[in-house]
Structure to design on (298 residues):
């Protein structure tokens, strides 16, 4: 898959951020990927001012040594590993490096705050997910070791959909993964229950309309399921009711050997609303590997 030909892994100097490496290594072995490790030194984020000269140089030397060590350990499983240190704002440098090195995927740990003072699920990861023109893969480091073994027998590719064409842009990547890994696809749809609807709607929305929404969602999932089955894929559908974020996280936490594939936004054009309420919740709270496909258009 072009997606996995070259993978960029940003590290922040912490062992926690390096927790993603076993999973990335397992994927690289499976897909024959090349890996590019990147650590970004942001002088403004360091506790040691650049003007202190020798002390700053010693700090930078420690960062370079740790990155080189991580690369060397990774080469035991993945022959093609390169590493580089960049200077500047982390999110900007990560995206620039991905473009310059022609990486098809950025893989990030969802936690980590090390020598460089920035957390991977803070503003850096948020901005990378928001602005990246290439897919972003996230996973909680505590699950990465388990999934590094499970990805060879990965059984489920979960795809949350909301009925929009934007959300369906996750399907090609999900199809490719399922075919390559002999996994099944689970199409997920959450229909808001009356209890979670905005207050201004609860008094005016007839129950018949709510039932019609459920029927529409069920038919939509059936149509997508049939379309994928005609391609020879194993597909099931699951429909839930309530808050999209809460329901997806609840179900995904109980799903084993799973990878989630979803677009960076769906029905709404308001990125902060959708990412904050659904994608970011899934990334932060499920802990599962989440492959986020940048939505095009809409």
């Amino acid at each position: 898959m072009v997606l996995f030909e070259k993978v960029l892994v940003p590290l922040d100097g912490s062992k926690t951020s390096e927790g993603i490496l076993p999973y990335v290594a397992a994927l690289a072995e499976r897909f024959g990927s090349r890996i590019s490790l990147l650590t970004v030194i942001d002088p403004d984020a360091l506790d040691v001012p650049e003007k202190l000269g020798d002390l700053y140089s010693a700090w930078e030397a420690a960062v370079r040594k740790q990155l080189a060590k991580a690369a060397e350990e990774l080469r035991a499983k993945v022959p093609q590993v390169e590493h580089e240190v960049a200077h500047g704002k982390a999110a900007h440098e990560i995206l620039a490096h991905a473009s310059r090195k022609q990486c098809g995927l950025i893989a990030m740990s969802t936690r980590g705050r090390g020598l460089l003072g920035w957390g991977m699920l803070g503003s850096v990861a948020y901005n990378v997910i928001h602005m990246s023109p290439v897919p972003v893969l996230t996973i909680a480091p505590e699950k990465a070791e388990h999934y590094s073994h499970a990805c060879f027998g990965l059984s489920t590719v979960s795809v949350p959909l909301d009925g929009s064409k934007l959300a369906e842009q996750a399907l090609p990547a999900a199809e490719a993964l399922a075919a390559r890994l002999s996994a099944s696809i689970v199409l997920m749809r959450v229909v808001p229950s009356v209890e979670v609807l905005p207050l201004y709607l609860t008094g005016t929305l007839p129950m018949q309309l709510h039932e019609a929404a459920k029927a529409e969602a069920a038919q939509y999932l059936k149509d997508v399921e049939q379309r994928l089955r005609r391609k020879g894929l194993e597909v099931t559908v699951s429909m839930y009711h309530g808050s999209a974020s809460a329901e997806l996280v609840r179900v995904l936490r109980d799903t084993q050997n799973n990878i989630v594939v979803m677009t960076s936004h769906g029905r709404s054009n308001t990125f902060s609303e959708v990412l904050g309420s659904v994608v970011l919740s899934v990334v932060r709270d499920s802990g599962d590997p989440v492959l986020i496909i940048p939505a095009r258009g809409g």
Q: What stands out?
A: The first helix runs from residue 21 to 31. The first strand starts at residue 6 and ends at 11. The domain at 2-148 is CATH 3.40.50.620 (Rossmann fold). The chain has two domains: 2-148, 154-293.
